[in-house]
Every structure is written in structure tokens, then in C-alpha cells.
Amino acid sequence: MLLNLSNHPYGTWQAAQRAEAERRYGTVTDFPFPAVDPMLSGDAVAALAESVVEKVLQSPPNAIHVMGKMTLTFVLVARFQAAGLTCLASTSERLVVESEDGKKNRDFSICPISGISITIYIDLILIRTTFYRLSNC
Predict the structure, then answer these.
(1) In this structure, what are the phi and psi dihedrals at residue 22, rounded to the nearest 5 degrees?
(2) Residue 111's pLDDT band (boundaries 50, 70, 90)?
(3) Alpha helices, DSSP H only, in the chain?
(4) H/E element holding 83?
């Protein structure tokens, strides 16, 4: 089973990407990526990550597609990989069309799943994550 931890529901994936996911993992289950307040402290982001990891590890998938707010994604991938899970990331092509009145229409074309597998190696013994807020939103 592939767990889709993102805000891009499996039903909206391109047909070729869905077919490849099913071929590789059998089933795909959506798990919405949580909203992350940009004002959260690093400790609060870590706590949010721990609550997600705890839920996911109750019924561990074969692999997990993790896409969302980078601060939370970083902590999630580190924790999932420490638990032995394969983490995947998708890539997309951003298509922007600007109209004559200056308005921009943005669309994203998600690339096939065959190109999304990544492995991130992190020394989990000495890892310490610090988040810096460069400005207030």
C-alpha cells in the first residue's frame, strides 16, 4: 500500500501515474497533509509531525508519498525513514499562462510516479532541527 500524504488526492492524479502506483504498491490511500500555521515554532512543528507519524505507524504502508509544507515535510521524512519507510516525492511542471490583462493562470502537471522515488540520508543520532523565521507574514 502507498500512503499519499499530500493535498493532491489520488483521484486527481493522472491516469498513467495512478496505474503505475497501483502496479507498484497495489492500493493507494489518501492522508491529507495537515495545515501548518507559518507562525508555528520548531517545537510545535515537531509535535505536529509526531502526531502524524504516530497515526501512520499504526498501520505502516509499503511506501509513503510526502508532499507539503517544507518544514513539516522535512521532519516527517526523517521520522518515516528512521522507522524504515520508503519516502517518495513527486515533481511537477508549473504551467503559467498570462492573459492580456496581466492575470496569470497557473496549472500543475504532475510527472509520472516512476520518477518520484528519492532517498534522503540523515544522521539521526545528531540531528537537531531549528527553524528560523526570516520575517512575519
Answers:
(1) -65, -40
(2) low
(3) 15-25, 42-57, 70-82
(4) none
> What is the helix (H) or strand (E) element at residue 15, kind and residue range?
helix 15-25
Asked if 114 and 20 count as a contact pair (C-beta separation under 8 A), the reply is yes
Is residue 74 within 8 Å of residue 49, measured between CB atoms? no
In the chain, the amino acid numbered 37 is D
Q: Which three cell numbers stand for residue 101?
A: 490583462
Please answer whether residues 81 and 87 qualify as being in contact, where contact means their C-beta atoms are separated by less than 8 angstroms.
Answer: yes
Buried/exposed code over 52-87 (b: 16+ C-beta within 10 A; e: otherwise): bbeebeeeebebbbbbbbebbbbbbbbbbbeeebbb
Strands 104-110 and 63-66: unpaired
**How many C-beta atoms lie closer than 10 Å to residue 94's C-beta?**
8
d(CA 97, CA 100): 10
SS3 130: coil
Q: What is the pLDDT of residues 88-99, one digit of tens each?
A: 887 666 667 788
- Tell me the DSSP string of 88-103: E---EEEEEEE-TTS-
pTM: 0.73
